[in-house]
Specification:
The structure holds two protein chains of two kinds. Chain A is built from 15 helices and nine strands. The two termini of chain A are about 35 Å apart. In chain A, the strands form two sheets. In chain A, strands 6-5-9-7-8 form a five-stranded mixed sheet. In chain A, strands 3-2-1-4 form a four-stranded parallel sheet, sandwiched between helices. Chain A is globular and about 70 Å long. Chain A has helices spanning about 20-30, 30-40, 55-60, 85-90, 90-105, 125-140, 160-165, 195-210, 210-215, 245-255, 300-315, 320-340, 345-360, 365-380, 380-385; strands at about 70-75, 110-115, 145-150, 190-195, 225-230, 235-240, 260-265, 270-275, 290-295. Chain B is an alpha/beta fold. Among the domains of chain B are: about 5-80, Ubiquitin-like (UB roll); about 90-210, 2-Layer Sandwich (Alpha-Beta Plaits), CATH 3.30.70.20; about 280-335 and about 420-585, Fe-only Hydrogenase (Larger Subunit), Chain L, domain 3. Chain B has 18 helices and 18 strands. Chain B has helices at about 20-30, 80-95, 110-120, 155-165, 200-205, 215-225, 255-265, 270-295, 310-320, 335-350, 370-375, 390-400, 425, 435-445, 495-510, 540-555, 565-575, 580-585; strands at about 5-10, 10-15, 50-55, 60-65, 75, 135-140, 145, 170-175, 180, 210, 230-235, 270, 305, 360-365, 390, 465-475, 490-495, 515-520. In chain B, strand 17, helix 15 (about 495-510) and strand 18 form a beta-alpha-beta unit. In chain B, helix 2 packs across helix 3, helix 8 (about 270-295) packs across helix 10 (about 335-350) and helix 8 (about 270-295) crosses helix 14. The longest helix of chain B is centred in the middle third of the chain and has 24 residues, at about 270-295. Classes of the chains: A alpha/beta, B alpha/beta. At the A-B interface, helix 11, helix 12 and helix 13 of A face helix 2 of B. Bound molecules: flavin mononucleotide, iron/sulfur cluster (SF4) (4 copies) and FE2/S2 (inorganic) cluster.
Chain lengths: ~375, ~600
């Protein structure tokens, strides 16, 4: 049973934070001290995969190569998610600060913000903040520069290795892994790539200390996180909540009283039906999320919900690997045929097996995660798929 | 050993060099893992996913072609999970595929078909997606047909064109369900930078990229009583044709090839090697003339280095990419085109044939030769000099169609007049061969002595290194060539257009200072041509090259200027190299082309 109650937190946007002071003080610490703080905090990536941030930095710091990079992933392509935009609008210096701290740990001199194409309008303000930031670094005598690179406008470019390809001027297609970015990332050099929010968390951990951060959340999911809450809710918006809450409490707070399912983690996440709200924990030990929480009430057709997701993937797959490119097309055509009665209900089984193959054999996280929404919706709302 | 990794595959221990993949390790154990996007010549893509295997302790399957062997890995190549996934992958590919095998050029020679057949697919698991697609076929190029409905999007062609050929005529366009292999703005291949080299065709696992075949046209000509059909065969066909007819790579089948052509019904069975020797006479003389103009007359309009011009893929590459260097190209036509022009003039005259009734067919290791034969410049005889260019592969098809037991054929000789050749002509087929042949002749013209290499083998220009250089010092030259006394002739050789690009950049930046540069458009030269038997791999190229040099060493005449028929044609018809008649029939000019 989850013991965490829903708790609102104010770390990310907290305004009593003198960023320049925090930056100056943090960079005075040795790289080992900083790394220890981040490792101790138990922070895990906020971009979706949840990889321990301290470990990522540590791996990159151990690489002998001189040329290294820090990249901030601000591609934010998940439909219904706009938390990174909010961060970049309100507290850009915290993001840059997180990058500088990371640069200190791994030994990078150049950083990049890969900014979603649609966020072009943020660029001018970001450049302004960057001037202030670079001036502070100059005062301290810390050799690190950040540049803003505009994204190519495809969802797949948020995937880290496709993002590097895109930054290098190539088509955004995910690479084979290994090697991982900490060994061979941008320009095939050791690179730390973190989500916008992860970088802010790192920065704030340097300010408040790992101890304070760890007081929030659970063993597997330390700290708090931003949630983009949308769908059938009277109070849609962005909220910072402690990790590890029960979905039941969440729905109580944000639902409209008639919530039948919550899609946790967007199109690539899981659909949790009402009967499982109680036992479901939001966090890495339960159902993780990059931030998107979409509520559906009983007026929604889950068939349409699923079809939208599958269509999204069918279009946004980079198209290079077979299971994902063709699998998505088959899933879509398949559920349509079942709905129309052109295929029997038993074809759903075939499709679920296909989704499983996509999970285990696709080249990147996109194809691997299609089964999450597909299977969780089909399993829980089978009747809606057929009739 | 420090640099080896031990892993276990299907219960068997194996150790491989660090950096090798699981697929490499499995090969070492003779465990066959199916692959589609993987090709030995290319960087790893890891996109088809048909090679997935199970790694103990890892939830997802891993692509064996892409994953490096790591200490302690335990791999299963044939588990339930693997079989399911592989079956799904092949089914998915088929669902997007216009699998009309009986009317597909690659029928029985297709890697997708092989896999499907291995899996014994009775009924399709998934729905047919082909009706939802707007697949198109581009048939406009005289060399290559691109049929998108047969494409499995493995990107072998893209990697070939970009990495091996530095052309990038093909790329990936769109994403998701619309993702396809495309040219610049989907223009026909004919209108873009494509050099027609056919390297992509040679690597395409399916029928999506194939040569345009002229089988029916050739059969029709053969059956036409009214026509005299002459066939010529390029140097590199005789060491590769056997591969498509059940023989080992590296088999020399010159005699059997001549015999089969006669049985197919060609009226004259002749040899492009003859005109290769002629090329050396013309090109060697052209080089010496350029050198004289540059060194003695101080004529600055003369362009050096001089580039060879026998590879039509290379010529078109230069026309698109470095049009400022067209005057550096030797004006000599390729041996195929010299042959064609002479077939309808000299040969016709000598044999009392009406050139109007002559059909000239060439058997080439090359798909670019089809384009070359169709160039408007190539009509100096008053007719299209070469009517149809076939690949080595197409000849193999004709031999099979005719029911000929190729391996049991006796060795026969080429017909006379334009059928005689030297070893120097044979080695045209391998990278460095034209250079070596030219040096054997030019050195002797200038010094009166044979090239100072054991058995005439100029090993410095041989091999598979991408760019090779060789300098030869000219000493004690004959009086007529005194201006070359002490000159160090600087030469270079490149094969594959990526290496050609590299050498061009060096020349362009003034970092390289050559007199003479041989470039072959295909990796390994013509032995690795786009029209050669599939597969062509580094190992197979090596074997074919060995065969070429074996053939050369076995020939009685090793130098082009000693080919008796070459001597005869100068005596009776052309006069001397670079004569007016030579210029009319054997030389050409080039055109500037757009860079898209
Ligand atoms: C299809 C796909 C899209 C992704 N899009 C984003 C994105 O928009 N923003 C992001 O931070 N991470 C995205 N990721 C995750 C990144 O690959 C990467 O894991 C992340 O940037 C690492 O940062 P973190 O460790 O701070 O979470 C995406 C992954 C996939 C597979
Ligand atoms: S899983 Fe999808 S998005 Fe990822 S590489 Fe394959 S086709 Fe591209
Ligand atoms: S490409 Fe292969 S599978 Fe497709 S139709 Fe041709 S032979 Fe058949
Ligand atoms: S054209 Fe051939 S080589 Fe190119 S992607 Fe398609 S199947 Fe592969
Ligand atoms: S024929 Fe050669 S140049 Fe043309 S697309 Fe194929 S590989 Fe590229
Ligand atoms: S052969 Fe390995 S993924 Fe295609």
């Amino acid at each position: 049973m989850p013991d965490k109650k829903l708790k609102r937190v104010d770390i990310i946007f907290n305004e009593d934070c003198n960023c320049n002071e925090v930056l100056t003080n943090s960079l005075k610490k040795s790289k080992d001290e900083i790394l220890k703080e981040i490792l101790d905090s138990g922070l895990r990536g906020r971009g979706g995969a949840g990889f321990p941030t301290g470990l990522k930095w540590k791996f990159a710091s151990q690489e002998a190569e001189k040329e290294k990079y820090v990249v901030c992933n601000a591609d934010e392509g998940e439909p219904g998610t706009f938390k990174d935009r909010e961060i970049l609008t309100r507290v850009p210096l915290k993001v840059f600060g997180g990058m500088a701290i990371c640069a200190k740990v791994i030994g990078a001199k150049q950083g990049y913000v890969y900014l979603r194409g649609e966020y072009q309008f943020l660029k001018a303000d970001l450049e302004k903040s960057l001037e202030e930031f670079h001036a502070v670094l100059k005062d301290i005598g810390f050799d690190f520069q950040i540049k803003i690179t505009m994204g190519a406008g495809a969802y797949i470019c948020g995937e880290e290795s496709a993002l590097f390809e895109s930054m290098e001027g190539n088509r955004g297609e995910p690479r084979n892994k290994p090697p991982y970015p900490t060994v061979s990332g941008f320009r095939n050099k050791p690179t730390v790539i973190n989500n916008v929010e992860t970088l802010v968390d790192s920065f704030m951990i340097c300010r408040i200390g790992s101890q304070k951060f760890m007081e929030l959340g659970t063993t597997d999911s330390r700290g708090s996180k931003l949630f983009s809450i949308s769908g059938d809710t009277p109070i849609a918006g962005i909220y910072e909540l402690e990790l590890g809450m029960a979905l039941e409490d969440f729905v109580e707070e944000f639902g409209d009283g008639d919530t039948k399912a919550v899609q946790v983690g967007g199109a690539s996440g899981f659909c949790v039906p009402r009967k499982k709200f109680k036992e479901t924990i939001i966090g890495f030990e339960g159902v993780p999320t990059g931030g998107s929480m979409m509520l559906f009430n009983s007026s929604r057709s889950m068939y349409n919900v699923l079809k939208n997701y599958v269509e999204f993937f069918e279009e946004e797959s980079c198209g290079q690997c077979t299971p994902c490119r063709v699998g998505c097309q088959q899933l879509k055509k398949g559920i349509e045929a079942i709905k129309k009665g052109e295929k029997s209900a038993s074809y759903l089984k075939t499709l679920q097996k296909l989704a499983e193959t996509m999970k285990v054999s696709s080249k990147c996280g996109l194809g691997q995660s299609v089964a999450n929404s597909f299977s969780s919706i089909v399993d829980n709302f089978k009747e809606e798929m057929i009739y | 050993m420090a640099n080896t990794v031990n892993i276990k595959i299907d219960g068997i221990d194996v150790s491989v060099e660090a950096g090798k993949t699981v697929l490499d390790a499995a090969k070492k154990l003779n465990i066959h893992i199916p692959t589609l996007c993987y090709h030995e010549d290319l960087c790893v893509a890891g996109n088809c996913r048909v090679c997935v295997v199970e790694q103990e302790g890892v939830n997802n399957l891993v692509a064996s072609c892409a994953i490096p062997a790591q200490k302690g890995m335990v791999i299963h190549t044939n588990s339930h999970k693997v079989r399911n996934a592989r079956r799904h992958v092949v089914e998915l590919l088929l669902s997007e595929h216009n699998a009309d095998c009986t009317k597909c050029y690659k029928n029985t020679k297709c890697e997708l078909q092989d896999l499907a057949s291995e899996m014994v697919i009775n009924e399709h698991m998934f729905m047919d997606l082909v009706p939802d697609k707007n697949y198109t076929t581009d048939k406009q190029s005289p060399s290559i047909i691109k049929d998108d409905s047969k494409c499995i999007r493995c990107q072998r062609c893209v990697r070939t064109c970009h990495d091996l050929q530095h052309v990038s005529a093909l790329g990936v366009a769109y994403k998701g369900d619309h993702m396809k292999i495309s040219t610049f703005f989907e223009h026909p291949m004919y209108e873009v930078v494509c050099t027609n080299c056919g390297q992509c065709v040679n690597r395409c696992p399916t029928g999506a990229l194939i040569e345009k075949n002229y089988l029916d046209e050739v059969w029709d000509a053969i059956y036409d009583e009214d026509k005299h059909v002459i066939v010529q065969t390029a140097p590199a066909t005789r060491i590769a044709l056997g591969e498509d007819l059940g023989m080992e790579s590296g088999s020399i089948v010159t005699g059997k090839m001549a015999a089969s052509l006669r049985r197919l019904g060609f009226d004259s069975v002749l040899d492009t090697d003859f005109s290769a020797d002629l090329t050396i006479m013309e090109e060697g003389t052209e080089l010496l003339t350029r050198l004289k103009k540059a060194l003695v007359d101080k004529d600055t309009s003369v362009k050096l280095p001089m580039f060879t011009s026998c590879s039509p893929g290379w010529v078109k590459f230069l026309e698109h990419t470095y049009p400022d260097y067209l005057d550096n190209l030797s004006t000599c036509k390729s041996p195929q085109q010299m042959f064609g022009a002479l077939a309808k003039t000299y040969y016709a005259e000598k044999k009392g044939l009406d050139p109007d009734k002559i059909v000239c067919v060439s058997i080439m290791p090359c798909t670019a030769k089809k384009f070359e034969a169709n160039r408007p410049e190539m009509r100096d005889s008053g007719y299209q000099d070469v009517d149809m260019g076939l690949t080595t592969r197409e000849l193999a098809v004709m031999i099979k169609q005719a029911g000929i037991d190729f391996q049991e054929l006796p060795d026969e000789k080429f017909d006379s007049l334009m059928g005689e050749s030297s070893g120097a002509a044979v080695i045209f087929g391998a990278t460095g061969g034209v250079m070596e042949a030219a040096l054997r002749t030019a050195y002797e013209i200038v010094t009166g002595r044979e090239v100072p290499f054991k058995n005439l083998n100029i090993t410095a220009v041989r091999g598979m290194e991408g760019v090779r250089e060789a300098n030869i010092k000219l000493e004690n030259v004959l009086p007529a060539w005194s201006f070359l006394e002490g000159v160090e002739l600087k030469t270079a050789v490149a094969h594959g257009l990526t290496n050609a690009h590299q050498i061009m950049e060096a020349i362009h930046k003034g970092e390289a200072n050559y007199h003479f540069v041989e470039v072959m458009g295909c990796p390994g030269g013509c032995i690795g041509g786009g029209g050669q038997p599939i597969p062509t791999t580094p190992e197979i190229r090596r074997k074919r090259a060995e065969a070429i040099y074996r053939e050369d060493e076995g020939m009685a005449v090793r130098k082009s200027h000693e080919n008796p028929e070459v001597q005869q044609i100068y005596r009776e018809f052309l006069g001397e190299p670079l004569s007016d008649k030579s210029h009319w029939l054997l030389h050409t000019h080039y055109v500037k082309r757009k860079r898209v």
